[in-house]
Amino acid sequence: MSTIAHERFEAVIGLEVHAQLLTKSKAFAPVPPIYGEAPNTMVTPLCLGHPGTLPVVNENLVRYIIKMGLATNCQIAPKSIFARKNYFYPDLPKGYQISQFETPICHDGFVDIELEEYDKRIGVTRIHMEEDAGKSIHDQDPYNTLVDLNRAGTPLIEIVSEPDLRTPQEAYAYLTKIKQIVQYLEICDGNMEEGSLRCDANVSVRPRGQKEFGTRTELKNMNSFRNVEKAIEYEIYRQIELIEGGGTVVQQTRLWDTSKMQSRPMRSKEEAHDYRYFPEPDLPPIIVSDEMKEEIRAELPELADVRQKRFVSEYGMSEDDAKTLTEDKYLADFFEREIGDYPNPLDISNFIKTHVLRTLNEDKKHISEVNLPTGSVQAIVSLNGKNEISSSNAVKLYDEIYDSFNNFQNVLPDQDFVTGNITFLKGNLDTNPESVSNFVPINTSIPDYSVRINTDLPDNTLVYLPVLEYSSAKGLAEKLNLIQVSDSGFLEELVDEIIANNPDEVERYRGGKKQLMGFFVGQAMKASKGKANPKMVTQMVAKKLEG
Amino acid sequence: MSVSEKEVRYVANLARLQLSDEEVKHLGEDMNKILGFMDLLNELDTTDIAPLEHVVEMDSRLRKDEAKTPLSHEDALKNAPDADSDYFRVPKVIE
After folding, report:
1. Which pTM was predicted?
2. Closest Cα in chain B, distance from residue A389 (Å)
3. Which distant-in-sequence residues (6+ apart) come within 8 Å of A387 by Cβ?
4. Chain B contact set for A30 (CB, 8 A)
5. Among A20, A21, A59, A139, fewest CB within 10 Å belongs to which?
C-alpha cells in the first residue's frame, strides 16, 4: 500500500471468526461431528430436519464458549437465549440455523495483540453459539446439487471483534491471537486451511480525522492467515482508489480469489438477507450460574502470555525465544516434554528453535504432525553437551531421527509381516516403498523411546514404523559413526598425516600465518568425517608446529 | 400501520409460499387485523418489563457430550424425494 494513501486515509476493520469446537458430539444431537466420513452417515433425524425432532444443548458447547469468553475477558451472560436465523438453502434442512442474536452468551471482552512496534487492545464485541450447515456440492453432478449433511449441526462459536483494527497487520495479529487462544484452550484445532477456523472481514476506509465510518464491504473466502492479511490489504487499496477516482464504495460481500490474489463481488440475488431472527422456541434459556462460571474459570489452562512470562522466569529464556516457543501451544508442550530433568533447558530450547523449526519449515509441517520420539532432542543435546558428538554431528543425528519418524507410514495393505498387533519395521518406507519385502520386522517396542501410535486404529492393524536399529540416541550415533573421537592416539596419527600431506601450509603457518589453524582443523574434521574433537586437534597441531 | 400487498408478497416469498391474488388480499386483511390488535397492546406502558422470550419458565437442560450411533445411511436417505447412493439430490443451486 502506498504511504501517500496511508497519510490521507485510514482503514477500519472488524473480524468475525468462526471456530469449530472439538466436542465429541454435535451441538444439539448426540452424533460425532466428524469429517472425511462417507456422506450422510453422521446424521440423526434432527440433523436432517425431520418433523417432531427436538434439539438438546451439548454441555460442552456451553462450557467451551464460556472458556473462550473468560480467556478473552468477556462478560458472561447469566441468562442467554438461542434464536432462529431463517433462510432457505438445501444444506440447511430445518429452514433455519440455531444461533444467538440479541443475547450472546459472552460479550464486551478484549484481547491484547503485539505488533513489532506497538501493542494494542482489541475489543471483542460478542461471542455466540451456533450450528454449522451441511455441505452443498455443485460441481459433481451437471444437473443437480448434491447435499451432504454430516456437517449439519457441528458446534461453532462466532467471535466478533469491535471495529478496532486499523491495518492488515493488526488483523493478522488479532486472528493469530484468537487461534492461539482456542488452541491453548483445546476447544478448536485452529486450522484455517481445513476450515475449522474461518474468518470474514468487514472493511471500510475514511479520511483521517473523520469520525464517521465509511461504507463497508464484507470479505469472505479467505482460507489462510496470510490470505486474510492480503485480502484486507487489497480491499483497502481498492476502496481508496475508488474514492480518489471520484467513485463511491458499494456495500457488498466480496469473495477472495487466492489464485488471482484479488476479490470480486459475490454473485447473489440482489435482495438483502432478511433472516427474521426470533427466539428459538425449542430451547429454553441457557442459565450460567456464578458457580458454573467459577468452576470453568478454575479449569482454564495456562495461556500463552502467562506461559511466555514463565519461560523467561523459570528457564532464563530471552523474551523473544519465549515468545517463539509459546506462540504455538504444541511447540511449547514439545519443549517442556523434552526438558525432562535436563539441567540446561536453554540448550534444548536453542536446539528446537534452530533445528526442529528448520526441519518443520522445510517440510511445511506442524510439530503435531511429526512423531519425534519423547526424549530424542534431549538425548541429542545431552550427547553434544558431554562432548560425545560434535555440534555438526548432533544436527546429523537429529536429521536422521527426524527423517525416520517423520516418514512414518501408518498402514500398508501388506499381510506378510503379521506378527502381532503392531509390527515395527526397519527401513524408510516413504523412500523405499517397493522394497518392503526386504525389511526386517522387529516385533518389539523400542527401548528408551515411546513412539506415539494412532490408538484409534482397529486391533490387528499393521502399523509400519520405519524404526532405526538402536536402543538409544547414543546407540544410533555409534551406528552412524558420529561419536566424537577424543582418543589421543588416533588424533595424533590423523594430525601427523595432515601435517605430512600439506607441507606448503605447514611452512606458511610456521612463517606466521596463524589463521591457517582453521585449515588444519578443517582437514582433520573432514578426514574424520566430523568426529575428531576439534579442541584436541587444535592443541595438537599447535604443539607439533610450534613446539 | 398497515401492510401493503407488496409486503405480503415479500413475506410470502421469504416463506417460499406461492399466493394467488385473492390470497394476497385475504392475508393482507388478516395481517392488518393482527397488527391492529398489536397496536392496542402497544397502548400499555412496557418500559420496565423484560421481553418474554419463552412462555414456559425453565432452563435448558444440558446434554452430556457423548456420541451415540448415527442413523444408518439407508435410513438417512430413505425419505428423500431424490437422492443418489451417497447424497441428497436437489435442483441445481446456482451460487
Report:
1. 0.79
2. 51
3. A484, A486, A533
4. 63, 66-68
5. A139
**Rounded distance between C-alpha atoms, residue A315 and residue A319, angstroms:** 11
CB pair distance less than 8 Å for B54 and A81: yes
Any idea what the CATH number is for the domain that residue B34 is in? Answer: 1.10.20.60
Backbone angles phi, psi at A257, to 5 degrees: -110, 110
In a domain, B70, yes or no: no
At A371, the amino acid letter reads: N
Question: Using CA atoms, how far apart are residues A276 and A391, in angstroms rounded to an integer?
Answer: 66
Domain span at B29? 5-42
Of B63, B68, B92, the CB nearest to A59: B63
Helix (H, G, I), strand (E, B) or coil at A467: strand
Phi-psi region of A161 (alpha: psi -120 to 50; beta: other; left: phi over 0): beta
Cell numbers at residue B84, please? 443418489
| Among the partner residues B62, B64, B87, nearest to A40 by beta-carbon distance | B87
pLDDT at residue A463 above 60? no
* Residue A458 scores a pLDDT above 50: no
Do the domain assignments include residue B12? yes
- At what angle are helices A329-339 and A168-185 packed, to 10 degrees? 50
Residue A37 touches partner B, C-beta closer than 8 Å: no
Structural domains of chain B, count? 1
Predicted confidence band at A267 (pLDDT cuts at 50, 70, 90)?
low
Residue A100, all three cell numbers: 444467538
B16 touches chain A (CB under 8 A): yes
Query: B30-84 pLDDT, tens per residue?
Result: 999 999 999 999 899 988 888 888 887 788 889 999 999 999 999 999 999 999 9
